[in-house]
Amino acid sequence: MITLKEALTLSKDELSKVREELMQNINNNKHIGAYVEQLTNNEININADGVPIAIKDNINVKNREMTCCSNILKDYISPYNATVINKLELAGCCAMGRTNMDEFAMGSSTVSSCYGKTINPLDHSKVPGGSSGGSAASVAAGLAIAALGTDTGGSIRQPAAYCGVVGMKPTYGRVSRYGIAAYSSSLDQCGPITQNVEDAAILYDIISGYDTQDSTSARSVDYIPVTPNLDSDKKFTIAVIDNFIEDASEPIKIAYERTIQVLKDAGHAIIHKNMMDTKKHISSYYVVATAEASANLARYDGIRFGSRVEGKDLKETYIKTKSLGFGDEVQKRILLGTFVLSSGYYDAYYIKAQKVRHIIKNDFDSIFKEADLVLSPVAPTTAPTFNAFKTSLDMYLSDIYTISVNLAGLPAMSIPVGKDKQGMPIGLQLIANSYDEQALFDCGLSLEKEVKYEN
């Protein structure tokens, strides 16, 4: 598949041929289910004549359906573009299709979509990750030049690691959330999923910057484009978190140690650190995320937003609408979030979780006094098989390495570094200090050059 960098140099006629080739690939690979259109037997929608970028189904594109892969939003047509879509169009790109996702971005496998599951293009018995599994699968399978996903607790980086592509989560506030359906407002961030690090930098530059329409958009920090200043020869001090690796599988541990050596050989300095137990990260994350989800999803009641199911009175209408409109995982998280925000439990759970979140941020701040970046696993295993998660807790534990980044609001990038014995990709993540995306991409480019990963 042509890279984003190459596609941006093509003429209108050349781009037309690329789009035709993409459509043919998409039609020939409907079984992957990377796009909602593949699962519903509809034509892929392309907005304009620019470079086509696959768009996750929780990002508003004007005059197009946007459902967050939930029954409650079926047939909702967006009246406006998200800011990231406007920025794509200004840069000569355009929105292509709706990539499949876990319902309302709540999941780690892309199986909770109301349209059906997406499969991992490298092994059809395995999940592509989630919640941006459709975006990662589309890039890995050659069904997209690049894609946009959203990351609340690893939902870009984890599927990128499972599918052997690059996935990047920007600093919180660096990319506008205007026009992106919220799961957890203080954690969500939109970012690129691409074939390589340079493409990720290009797409990041396109969508980044201050937005007056987003109250959480960072306005006090100057935005300097990353791509023109990329330098893979820069040397960095990289921290490795020794106690993090304890929960990883043997293939991840081997790849981690090998990558540390690769970075040393490339001239980077390695220092060893420890952080708070990842189980506390999990606890803090799921209290904060579900509490915010409970508040954000209250609007989908069949009155303000969402498909209404009529009852004999208002209470029954609410109950029927939400019971039939939301899937099981979404209902679980709304119930948990409502509980931790309820009178008598708010201090015991929500406030305590926010205090733990502050400690996690302090841990990172302390590390970044001595290091430029942190190297960490993305997930404890490579892509699991379907039905490997017996309980919701099993699924939540697959996020142990990614959620701390969102709690601290930091930028991070998943890069494929090798494969396990079954040939499944292993991704590791680099984590940078707030707003230091330049160091993240420079070191990511250096690592990519040294490991020479091929799908």
UniProtKB/TrEMBL annotation:
<dbReference type="Pfam" id="PF01425">
    <property type="entry name" value="Amidase"/>
</dbReference>
<comment type="similarity">
    <text>Belongs to the amidase family. GatA subfamily.</text>
</comment>
<dbReference type="GO" id="GO:0030956">
    <property type="term" value="C:glutamyl-tRNA(Gln) amidotransferase complex"/>
</dbReference>
<keyword id="KW-0547">Nucleotide-binding</keyword>
<dbReference type="GO" id="GO:0005524">
    <property type="term" value="F:ATP binding"/>
</dbReference>
<dbReference type="GO" id="GO:0005739">
    <property type="term" value="C:mitochondrion"/>
</dbReference>
<dbReference type="GO" id="GO:0006412">
    <property type="term" value="P:translation"/>
</dbReference>
<dbReference type="InterPro" id="IPR000120">
    <property type="entry name" value="Amidase"/>
</dbReference>
<protein>
    <recommendedName>
        <fullName>glutaminyl-tRNA synthase (glutamine-hydrolyzing)</fullName>
        <ecNumber>6.3.5.7</ecNumber>
    </recommendedName>
</protein>
<keyword id="KW-0067">ATP-binding</keyword>
<dbReference type="GO" id="GO:0050567">
    <property type="term" value="F:glutaminyl-tRNA synthase (glutamine-hydrolyzing) activity"/>
</dbReference>
<dbReference type="InterPro" id="IPR004412">
    <property type="entry name" value="GatA"/>
</dbReference>
<keyword id="KW-0436">Ligase</keyword>
<dbReference type="InterPro" id="IPR020556">
    <property type="entry name" value="Amidase_CS"/>
</dbReference>
<dbReference type="GO" id="GO:0016740">
    <property type="term" value="F:transferase activity"/>
</dbReference>
<keyword id="KW-0808">Transferase</keyword>
<dbReference type="InterPro" id="IPR023631">
    <property type="entry name" value="Amidase_dom"/>
</dbReference>
<keyword id="KW-0648">Protein biosynthesis</keyword>
<feature type="domain" description="Amidase">
    <location>
        <begin position="42"/>
        <end position="440"/>
    </location>
</feature>
<dbReference type="InterPro" id="IPR036928">
    <property type="entry name" value="AS_sf"/>
</dbReference>
